[in-house]
Amino acid sequence: MPQPASESPSHSDVAARAERRWAIVMLGIIALLVAMVVFTGLHWAMMPPSRVETVDPATLQLSGEFTEANLGSAVEPDGSVTVRIVGQQYSFTPQCIVVPAGTPVTFRVTSADVIHGLMIMGTNINSMIEPGFISTFKTTFDKPGDHQMPCHEFCGTGHQAMWANVKVVEPSAFTQLADHARRLTCDL
Ligand code: CUA
């Protein structure tokens, strides 16, 4: 016995309409995702996320901000401190960094060879150090003390021996040191 003719077509009509509706929704979702991919691709290609600063790793030691004489802590005109560090297989230069407590400190760090990591223990400073790029981070150390600063990115056979120290001193002690040198490290 065949199905009643009056019900069957209307059921399949309903099903077809529902399928079409969902097909349109699906196509809409796909179109939206493609549009997002195209937009973010073009947009971020023109405007990279955050601030990207580049530097030529081949000429770090020869000229510019990361020459050896310019590494270490520098007092800025506004009283804040900028620390410049170069990482290389398998050490940081300088080996011991001195900064004042309670003062805004900006770290500017790059690599002379491969990718390294920089982490100052007891703080939330944790960054990759990449050749060709300058990693920048700002912090204020609450109180005097010593922090270890290991390289936390495997960078070769000497990786586990790559680390430096950060010595946080009283602002007055730092000011005394700063009177005697343009760039400070623990050795001064
Ligand atoms: Cu440098 Cu690990």
Automatic annotation (TrEMBL):
Domain Cytochrome oxidase subunit II copper A binding per the UniProt entry, residue ranges: 78-180
Name by which UniProt lists this protein: Cytochrome C oxidase subunit II
Entry annotated with the keyword Metal-binding: yes
PROSITE patterns in the cross-refs: COX2, COX2_CUA
Organism lineage: Bacteria, Pseudomonadati, Pseudomonadota, Gammaproteobacteria, Lysobacterales
PANTHER family the record matches: CYTOCHROME C OXIDASE SUBUNIT II (PTHR42838), NITROUS-OXIDE REDUCTASE (PTHR42838:SF2)
Coiled-coil portions: none
Localization, UniProt: Cell envelope
Keyword annotations of the record: Copper, Membrane, Metal-binding, Transmembrane, Transmembrane helix
TM annotation in the entry: 22-42
